[in-house]
Amino acid sequence: MAEKNLYEILGVPKTATDAEIKSAYRKSALKYHPDKHKGDKDSEQKFKEINVAYEVLSDKQKRQQYDTFGSTTGRGGYSGGAGQAGGFDFNGMNFDFGGGGGFADIFESFFGGAGGGGGRSRRSKKAGPMRGNDIEANIRISFEDAVFGSEKELEITKSDICKHCDGRGAEPGSVIGTCKTCGGTGEIRTIRNTILGQMATSNICDDCNGEGKRPDKLCSVCHGTTRVRVKERVKVKIPAGVDNGSTLKLAGKGEGGIKNGPSGDLYILLVVEQSKKFIRDGLDIHGETEIHLLQAVLGDEISVATIHGEKTIKIPAGTNDSKVFKISGEGVKKASGQAGDHYVKIKIKIPDKLSKKERELYVALAGEAGLDTKKSGGLFW
Ligand SMILES: [Zn+2]
Ligand SMILES: [Zn+2]
User: Fold this and answer.
1) Which residue stretches of the chain have pLDDT < 70?
2) H helices of 161-310, where?
């Protein structure tokens, strides 16, 4: 094909706007449409040229390339016509532009989608193996289970490969033959009438899912869909040291893959219940313990509850209320060896009932401390 100036083909100046190019294309395309000139090779050729010109000039990048190099291929000249890879089948004629889909896009922008109405997505290729979907699930565990780890069981519902037919969609023992709907091509061709004439589109065959083959008897369990919804009990090993909001990943425990694709993964979000005794902060544990007023004053060795049992610590004489002591390494311990600390806050308990003897001693103590307890009204008898 002789090389022609693409602007001349559409009859627009080099400075034409996108709208002018589009308008010129519509006029020319209608004028030279093959349906109006049946059997006229010149019109057919002209129609092809118009579409090639529009395909280049309507694309900002291609147009710029063409303006700079006089070509979009780098070989000089833009040669349209049959025989290149990719393209579009139009009313029995092949328009191949190498760009793959460019021409179809033109029609879509004019007619609002080549796939036709109905809200179903346009599919033109049969799908290959696909990874199954990931699944997310929650599991509630106790404070202790999060600290020390445990094993739980969880029931999940998921879409999986049909075991009855092994994902083939055919009832065991039945023969898989050519799909009668599409004749084995896996595609259904539809001819639509548009203002530019008839247009052929291919869609994947729904009856065989583009396989071209179909069993003579569909699987009685999945009805040929190859998939079923199943309930599965999954054992979950909870490692020591997990926290509220931790996520565990169980690789391959998600939904089954399609056409031998790998399974998805199962993600488990841990919801950890609170403890009545302790507050957790990462790997550290915070607690409180009560001591007698005299232990605070005189000092003592006391027993403190930690998540690892009772631990003994020394309270120095003159310990104030709310003082916090740290017990190193007695917090949450991870398998990695990482460990937090235990923090204990001292609450001083003031005795509210005194024996006669105790009362006398406290009064004596008060006198020793120079306190006039009768005046202050702190003590009464
Ligand atoms: Zn079919
Ligand atoms: Zn089945």
Assistant:
1) 1-3, 71-127, 374-381
2) 293-298
